[in-house]
Each structure stands twice: as structure tokens, then as C-alpha cells.
Amino acid sequence: GRFQSSTLSEVDEFNASVGFDYQLYPYDIAGSIAHARMLAQQGIIKKSDAEKIVRGLQKIYKNIQKGDFEWDLHKEDVHLNIEAKLTELIGEVGGKLHTARSRNDQVATDIRLYCRDQVSRLAQVLLEYQRALLEQAEKHIDTLLPGYTHLQRAQPISLAHHLMAYYEMALRDLARLVDSFSRINTLPLGSGALAGTTFPIDRNLVAKELGFSSLAHNSLDAVSDRDFVIETLANLSLLMMHLSRLAEEWILWTSQEFQFIQLPEAYCTGSSMMPQKINPDVLELIRGKTGRVYGALQTLLTLMKGLPLTYNKDMQEDKEGCIDTVETLSICLKLLISMLPKMKLNKARMYHAAGRAYSNATDLADYLAKKGLPFREAHEVVGQLVAKGIAQAKDLQELSLAEMQEVSSLIEQDVYEVLKLESVVNVRNSYGGTGTEQVKKQIKLARRLLET
Fold it and tell me: Is 69 left (phi over 0), alpha (psi -120 to 50) or beta?
């Protein structure tokens, strides 16, 4: 009623968010139903009016699910589209729904319900991802490959140990999502535009119906807080970073230089020019979409940093990046889960690579240290032996005992058992190490955690 002229069509388009926030309709309708029932319970509107409102909202929900709902750009957002349709269905009674609430506390409630639902769903998908990693680890305790530092072969490890490293990352990701739930699960509805309402509402009734565990204590903060969205995006950015690291390793491992794994063709594409190519496009896209997820986080952090209390239209930009991030994580996780058991491993290639590049040099140094030579001196001795091996194009275990003893008389025949690849792996039996017994313990603990 305040306006004497209509807004420009360009402004309507610029102002509208229904193109993406329509996806919040289940949460908007659920919040409105709870609000209507509370209004009736408190005697603010008639129970008969509340029943009409609830039936109308339920019909709208069914129509949207069937695809029988036309979203109107000129009605700006999901909230006004649904409310307008409600009034069309049940008459002026529909206008009573907005009693004692603002779009400010309404949208804050919707996005909290969305984040709560999606965090819970993603946590379940993340558990599936952990199971997929664990199942492969259980199959490859005895599969050996090089471990790397600086992308240079360092020490041999088991593939199970390598996969369990990503399991541990996922475990932290899961813990962060679970920990964030209580901060998401706070009800802002009832805060009004910014200062509360004059109506005798009962926010606890709404919280109970919607499953919120607590109420927002300050109405100003309630309508202007997006920390929970930022925290969700931050947690998902960390998860995406872990997926990207895995994708990067597998991209390397599929190359002709490594030849450790072969991806199933269903997850690859060819070249428009080079007929021999099989490109790991899915993995590359997972790696690439990480920047997209980071962008959503950076956008919201930048958006919020200069906003005075309380609500500002800038905050409309919180939803698109959040929704896109959730969808991106969902498809990336699902693709990795389905891809994991279908990869073919070149175990012989892995084993050969694990035994080359003097990956047992540290074990020789440890061998000498256990014989009483200070480790720094042992380190120097082994360096000389490595140099000797390089000069002769031999690995350490290929040097004769006489050649080794030229550098250190402490070296005896038993050194060859120490330098065996399996020995190098299994002797690392410290807690959390790559030794077979330790890896089995890691897997057993992980299996127990997943089953509880």
C-alpha cells in the first residue's frame, strides 16, 4: 500500500530469488503449517481458519510435488508464491497466515530447516563413503605400493593403510557435520522482522512441531544470523578438499607414468581427436568443482562481513551457493562410492614401484642404529650406499654384502631380510603405522564405529 507505482520489470527480475529458492518449498510449507497451528492454539486466529490454511498448504505441497505449480517471478520468492496460491485457494483467510511473523524470520527458519535436513542426509552419504573405503581396505591389506613425500617415492605402505587415511579424513568430516547440528537446530521463527511481535505467540509449540531443540534468544541476531550456513559451507569445503585430494591421486595413478589403477570406462570419456585416450573426467570434475564450493563459502563470508543489524537484502545471496554446494557434494560422493569397488588395480606395478627408488633406505639406517651406530651417522652411511647403488644402477638389496661392508662393517647377512619389501612394511608396527597388524586394528576399529 505504501507504493504509488509498480517496480520496473528489470527490478523484478533482479530482485527475484524464486529461480533457486523454490527448492525450499517443503521447509516453507512445514514452517507455515506449524505457525498456523500455533496461532490457533494461542487464540490469535480461529481454529477453523487454521484448519483451512493447513489443508490449503498441504494441497499446494502435493501440487508442487506433482509438478502442477507455476512459479511466478513477479511474486519474487518461494514464500510469496506459496502465500499467494494459498489465498487463491482458500480466500482471504490465507492472508491470516502471516500474522505475527515476517519474511525475515520465515526465511531464516526455512534455511535452517534446509541445512538441518541436508546436513543429516549428507552425513548418511558420508557414512556410505566410509563403508566403501573400508570395504576396499579390507581387501587390500597385503597390496603394497609406494608412499610419497614431495611426490617422490618415500617408503612402501599397504594400499589398505592408504585408503584408511581417507577414511580418517571422512571421519573428521562426519564429526564436524554432526557437531554443527545443534547450532543449526535453533528456531528463529517468532522473532518478527527484527524486534519480536505484539501477539501472544508460543515459540516452544512451533519448535516442538518442527523438531528444533532450542529457540533463538535474541530477535535481532535470529533474523540476521547466517553463521550456521557459513559453518555448513566451511565443513563441506573441507570435505570437498578431501575428495579433491583423492581424485588428484587417482588421476595420477591412472596415468601411463604410474599405471597403478584403471578406472571403469563408465566414469571416463574419450578424446575428440585422439582415439587412444581414456580421460578421467569424473575425477577431474570432482577436483575442479572444489573451487566452486570454496567460492560459495568465500561469497557468503564476504557478503556478511559488512552487514549492519539486522536483515539486509544482500542475505538473499546465501541460498543459491548453499543449495549448489549441497548438490555438488551429493553427486561427488555418490560417484566415488559407486566407482571405488569397480576400479581395477595393477598390483604388480604397485609392488614393483614400492620396491624401487631406495624406499628401504630408512630401514637400513634403522638397522645400523639398532647395532649401536648413532642414527645421524647411520643416515650418512646409507646415503653413501645409495650413491653406490645409483652409480651401479642397483637397488640396495641388489648390492653384494662385500659392497655394503666397504662402507660399514656393521652390515651382516641378515640385512637382506631387513631390506625385503614385506619386511619394510610389516616392521612398522607402531600405533597407526602401516604394518599389517596395525592396519588390521585400524580396520577393526573403523568397522566397529560404523556398526554403532
Answer: beta
Among 9, 182, 214, 271, the active-site one is 271
How far CA 244 is from CA of 318, 329, 427, in Å, comes to 24, 11, 31
Residue 255 annotated among the catalytic residues of the structure: no
Residue type, 437: E
Please give the DSSP secondary-structure letter assigned to residue 158.
Answer: E
pLDDT digit string, tens, across residues 352-377? 999 999 999 999 999 999 999 999 99
Give ∠ CA 194-196-202 in degrees, rounded to 5. Answer: 140
Beta carbons within 8 Å of 281's beta carbon, 6+ residues apart: 267, 268, 269
Region 154-179: mean pLDDT is 97
User: Annotated catalytic residue: which of 5, 6, 150, 430?
Assistant: 150
Cβ of 402: how many Cβ atoms within 10 Å? 8
Answer whether residue 16 shows pLDDT above 90: no
140 flagged as catalytic: no
Q: Is the peptide bond before 310 cis (omega within 30 degrees of 0)?
A: yes
Contact 442, 436 (CB under 8 A): no
